[in-house]
Hints:
Two copies of one chain form a homodimer. By secondary structure, chain A is α/β, with parallel strands linked by helices.
Amino acid sequence: MNLPQRISGVNKNSIPRLVQYRHVLKRISDSGRIRVYSNDLAEAIGITAAQVRKDFSLFGIIGKKRGGYDVHDLLVVIQKILGFQQGQDVVIVGMGHLGTALSNYKGFGEEGICIKAGFDTDADKCGTRGHIPVYPFSECLKYITDHHIKVGIIAVPAGAAQKVLNVMLLGGIEGVLNFAPVHLFADQPCVIHDVNLMVELESLLYFVNALNTREHNP
Amino acid sequence: MNLPQRISGVNKNSIPRLVQYRHVLKRISDSGRIRVYSNDLAEAIGITAAQVRKDFSLFGIIGKKRGGYDVHDLLVVIQKILGFQQGQDVVIVGMGHLGTALSNYKGFGEEGICIKAGFDTDADKCGTRGHIPVYPFSECLKYITDHHIKVGIIAVPAGAAQKVLNVMLLGGIEGVLNFAPVHLFADQPCVIHDVNLMVELESLLYFVNALNTREHNP
DNA sequence: GTTTTTATGTGACGATTTTCACAAAAAATG
DNA sequence: CATTTTTTGTGAAAATCGTCACATAAAAAC
């Protein structure tokens, strides 16, 4: 078990997998096991063992031939790579059902991630909703600035999303998880990751239909 | 504007993009425009124009050199490719905030997609919740079977997801959108698409941090 | 200690996806 | 009508990503 050698030239897709390895390793660690094989991790997240080892290889993670990986050590190394040592504060704008669902997610805390506050233009949604305080959106800029929030979640309707992003950028936000079904434009460096649930569902429908028509016309 | 020539050898990634093109085209169509250029679509969803044209090329979509594409024709062709002519009935299991958020999504109807019903083990969540009827989970198998539902959404906690899938499979489900943060196993052909919101957020955090440390150590 | 068995680590290969670049078509211009 | 401008369509090149195969190490078995 060594330290990563080369940081650059990372496979972008390996990052979400590292996150998944970490979740699985937590469960395995809690169960008391102290060793884990690439095959275990592969099965747990539905990929091949070679893929797991390749990911590890990219980050310079070394196990023991025939001995697999020490669960605890592996966890520590992956934590270090993912870099969540320091607490990560996040805010959510748009406290409809989706925003509320995210604010309720357990497990964020375990990862050192803290959803600090929610914001909404609808006064009815303000107050304490679930686990976090919810403030009027008008206070969002001040909050982000004062608390040095770096990451925000946008869970508002399409029409309002760009305005929300603009405010976030004014506050110095550096990363956004965007659930609004529109592409957003940022005039300063900011990582924007779109999650479009409608697109996910409709794509799935295509593949289901394709599967059926392929069966009939092979 | 012609019909698709080759159906096989499709780029998997082009499907979600086609779905996005369709959304954009709907908006453009509503605005009264009748022509659209690859560049317009590219900007609207944040990719390159070459990518748009390549996607179209793959599906045999032909425009007019220098004339772009007829918005209406393009919409019709893409609809045909995505194959949503017939109504697509979907059920949701797990009517917490996330399930409810999905059930409330407008725009599904416009796409010919109909969220027919929700199910939950919690009796308090049953009845009419938002726009759809919610039944006890015990009735799920019968409902899926009787209504020939082909696609389901799983929005339950990790621990319950596999059991839900098993029931769905018994009912003959062919596609699942899984929001539970676990990998599911199916013993019959079924397209399972995972959406792990925690993984999305944590990956984003990595890239935000990476951006910062890169700035300091270029 | 020798042999067998089991997992890793990684270079090479193959497959897939995106980008590039430019010929070709047609609209626009004069 | 000739020229210019703009945009498409696509083969070819480049980049990215995943798979394979096997040498290598070490545990296990005897």
